[in-house]
Amino acid sequence: MVAATLRLVREDDAEQIAAIYAPYANGTAVSFADRAPTAEEYRDRIRTTTARLPWIVCEQDGIVAGYAYASPHRASPAYRWSVEASIYVHAEHQRRGVGRALYAALLETLRLLGYHRAYAGVTDPNPASVGLHEAVGFERFGTFEDVGYKLGAWQSVIWLVYRLGNDDYPPTEPRLLLDLLGTPEWDAALGAGQALLS
Length: 198
Prior knowledge:
This protein has helices at about 15-25, 40-50, 100-115, 125-135, 175-180, 185-195, and strands spanning about 5-10, 55-60, 65-70, 80-90, 115-125, 140-150, 155-165. By secondary structure, it is α+β, with helices and mostly antiparallel strands. The chain has one domain (about 5-190): Aminopeptidase (3-Layer(aba) Sandwich). It has a seven-stranded mixed beta sheet, sandwiched between helices. Strand 6 and strand 7 form a beta hairpin. Helix 1 (about 15-25) crosses helix 2 (about 40-50) and helix 3 packs antiparallel against helix 6 (about 185-195). The longest helix is centred in the middle third of the chain and has 16 residues, at about 100-115. The two termini are about 15 Å apart.
């Protein structure tokens, strides 16, 4: 068995990513999506996201075991130092350190890019996801009660925050992911997660 590795997402990962996400979207309230996106929709998301923000996959034996990415928190310019973090791990690869490794690499990349805060929303109840987020350093700060309706019930969302630092006043503008790729800093960010898979 080949060791798992972390790397930047590629467009040809779209089909496997869609397959990982589909059970969350179609059969649970973990995702508030009303349908699973297609592989082509994921290709578009990958292109859009990685122009600015990181999307990291964990690959083992040619299979995508999980992925984590950041997206803008809100559209207004004042929010541009904050992101939302998302992570999904294939059911067969859960509880093997994949989630921690992905988040270690993602959060270090976001820190290097100059972001201030990363937020994550977790449908309540989901103790495994909350536990993962807290284990990597996210802190719970609130709950949006009955904020979404899915599977015949109102669903609440627990919100968590990861303090990335970058507390300068005024803050410097976040860097683009493209400016980081291929640098020793990028290698070190991936290495922070890779060390947890060894």
